[in-house]
Give the backbone structure.
Amino acid sequence: MIRLFYLLLLLFLVGMDVCATGGNSLSASSSLQFESPPVLDELSNKEVQSIYQDREGYMWICTRNGLFRYDGYSLVAYKSNFTEPDLLTNNNIYCVAEDGKSRLWIGTYRGLNMLDKRTDTVRKFTDTPFSHTGVSQILVTADDRVLFGTEHGLYTYREEEDDFCALDSLVTGHGRSVLVVKSLMEDDRGDIWIGTWSTGLYRYERKTGRYIVYPRMNERNSAHVLFQDSRKNIWVGTWGCGLQMLHDAYDPSRTTWTTFAAVPDKEGTVSDNLIYSISEDKSTSSLWVGTRRGLSILSLKNIELPPPHISQMYLRGLFLIIIMSQMFTKVLPEGKSRPYVVTCRATFG
């Protein structure tokens, strides 16, 4: 059985060369070591789009050509192929999430699937309002409600009716609105944050049951990635407009934000304005930000005091970075555990 603790970083490289820049705020970044379990070379596609740890500790690796379960030793593939041509609605896997009934919900480029882990059987949902579109995000809340962020709206699964209810009109307050949902997050209060491609940021306030609309935060109105750190700061990663940290996040009438934007040829700024992922290394109290051009690390200590300094780690030939909220742990012979970063080579052409 695999064991995990706090941060998993999966890097997709054409080359393995690493160089670190940035000053003294996180000097340890220059000594980070990257290694890859050889078994990951068996992935049929190295373009991994997300990773998920289930309740048993298994890692589920979502690629553009199938879903793979990793137990720390070997891979098991779930994909349509010659032997099982209709296993999934699509092999391009965006995301997965497990509910309290040991069901793994699988979002793909074209529709939704559900794997019953108890029987190892897959159910395809071919008659939903979003059967022919992408399911970008799946969130299972603390009270076991399942939400689906799709390219054609936000939905929730109704167990008794065995159907899906659209929530867009409740979120926006407009009956004809359809959201392109890119991110979903439940915070420490139980509120649900909803990030969209180009219609901004929303929050469902649990204690009042109302949906709150946030002011436009960037020129694209993008809220592509959402994250809450251990200090309860809310972060928004945008598509082309940098990284943003909210102030007075729970009072939209007063909400402001700090934007961390890339500045060409300047050290101490985020490596790129296109943000793929955000996570936190609690052992160093630092935010890890995956961008189009590499890894940026921001110290959360005294984050409110300008100017914050961002350490950059460039990975030459980098194609994509995905950072998850947990980290794979290797148990060493001396009984100690240490984190390691998984790297995979990507082949193009």
Summary: The two ends are 37 Å apart (CA to CA).
